[in-house]
Amino acid sequence: MFWHVFKHRFKRMIREKTIIFWALIFPCILATLFNLAFGNFSEMYTFQTVRIGIVEKEESPVIEFLEQLKIEDEQIFEITYLSQTDAEKKLDDGMISSFIIFDEDIELVVNRSGYNQTIIKHILDNYLQASSVIDNLFETDPAKAQVLMTENLDFSKNYVQGDEQGDNNMILVSFYSLIALGAIYGGYFGMKSINESEGNLSGYGIKNVLAPFHKIKILIPSFAVDVVIQSTAMILLVSYMRLLGIDFGDQLFYVYLIAIFGGIIGIIIGAVVGITNQLDERKKDSIISAVGFFMAFLSGMVIVNIKHWVQNTAPWLAQINPGNLITDGIYALYYYDTMDRYWENMMMLVIISLILLVIISIFIRRRQYDSI
C-alpha cells in the first residue's frame, strides 16, 4: 500500500510545475539576482593601501611609525617623498590621498574628505596624543615612561587578527535567507497532501476518504513524497548558490542538513495551513506565499538590519520564526568557531515541528463527515 501510494503521488507531484517553481526555481532566480546586485560587494570594501606624500627636511619618528603599520602582511600606507609643489600637484590629480608637512608642527594637507583621508587623520591624531602623554610622563616619571614605550607602544606589532571563518560579510545573510524562503515554500507540498486527504477539500480527498484504508496510510506515503522532493530541491538550491560563489564556510554537511530539515519544517507549516481552515487551494497558496516571504523578510532577506532589529527588540519572535532559525543556523556555521549556536537553532526547529505535528494530528482526528 505504501509504495503504491508513494509511486503514484510522486509521479503526480513532479508534474506540479507551480509548486516546483516556488520551491526551487524562484529561490534560484532570486539568488541569481542577488548575486548580480551584491556579488562584488565585499570586493568594493576590500582594504587598499593608502597613498600619502611626505614633505620633510629631516628624519621624523612619525615616518618610521607610519611605515611599520600593517594589516596582517599588507602595508597600510604607501609613502612617497616629494617636494611641496609636487605633492600639491599629485594631490590635485588624485595620485595621493594627502600629504604631510613637517615644520614646527605636523600638518596634514587634504583637498577632500573621504575614507583614506579619515584613516590617516585618525592615526596621526592618536599618535600625537600618545606622544604628548609620553612626553609629559618623561618629565614626571622617566622610568614609567620608558616601560610604557617598550611594552605598550610596539608599533611593529600587528594588532589586527584575521578571522579564520572569513570576513564578517553581512550581505551573506540575504543569501542564506533565500534558503529559508525555499524551505518555507515547501509548504505547498504539505498543503497539497492535506487537501488530497480530506473529503471536503478536493476530489482526491473524496476518493481517499471512501477508500477502505485508514487515513494515516494515505498521509504517510504522501508526506514521504513531499520530503523526498523538497529535500532534493533544497540540495539543488544550496548547490546552485555554491556555483554562484556564495561562501558557506567549511561545514557544508551541516549546511545541507539544516536546509533539508528546514524544508521538512516548511512541509509541516503547509500542512497546518491546509488543515486549519476551509479556504480554497488558491487562497491557501497565497497564505503560504505571504508567510514564507514574511519569515524570510524578518530573517534579513530584503534588509539585513531587520534581522538584528528583531533579535534586539523582539527576541521571542526570532526564536519562533523558522526562517530566522534556518538563516541564523547557516550563518553560525560560517562565522562562529563552535557549533553551539547551530544546534540551538536546530533544537528550536525540532520543538516547533513537534508542536505543529501535534496540532495537525488533533485536527485530523477531529475531522468527520456527515456526508460527501
List keywords for this structure.
372 residues; alpha/beta; D-Maltodextrin-Binding Protein, domain 2; 2 domains; two-stranded antiparallel sheet; elongated
Architecture blueprint of SSEs:
Elements (H helix, E strand, L loop, with lengths): L1 H12 L3 H22 L2 H4 L5 E6 L5 H8 L1 E2 L2 E2 L1 E5 L2 H9 L5 E5 L3 E4 L5 H26 L1 H10 L19 H14 L2 H9 L7 H8 L4 H29 L8 H24 L5 H18 L5 H10 L1 H6 L1 H14 L4 H27 L6
Parallel strand pairs: 1-4, 1-5
Antiparallel strand pairs: 2-3, 5-6
Question: Describe it for me?
Answer:
There is one protein chain. It is elongated and about 95 Å long. It contains 17 helices and six strands. The two termini are 24 Å apart. The protein has helices at 2-13, 17-38, 41-44, 61-68, 84-92, 115-140, 142-151, 171-184, 187-195, 203-210, 215-243, 252-275, 281-298, 304-313, 315-320, 322-335, 340-366; strands spanning 50-55, 70-71, 74-75, 77-81, 98-102, 106-109. Strand 5 (98-102) and strand 6 form a beta hairpin. It has two domains: 17-41 and 170-366, no CATH class; 48-151, D-Maltodextrin-Binding Protein, domain 2 (3-Layer(aba) Sandwich), CATH 3.40.190. The protein is of the alpha/beta class and 372 residues long.
Number of separate domains: 2
Question: How are the strands of the biggest sheet laid out side by side?
Answer: 4-1-5-6
The first-to-last residue Cα distance is: 24 Å
Strand proportion: 5-15%
Total beta-strand segments: 6
Mean pLDDT: 80
Please trace the helix and strand order, writing H or E for each element: HHHEHEEEHEEHHHHHHHHHHHH
Number of helices: 17
Q: Unreliable segments (pLDDT under 50, ≥5 consecutive)?
A: 152-168
Choose one word for the global shape. elongated
Helix percentage range: 55-70%
Largest sheet: 4 strands, mixed
What's the gyration radius in Å?
31 Å
Q: Structural class, from secondary structure content? A: alpha/beta
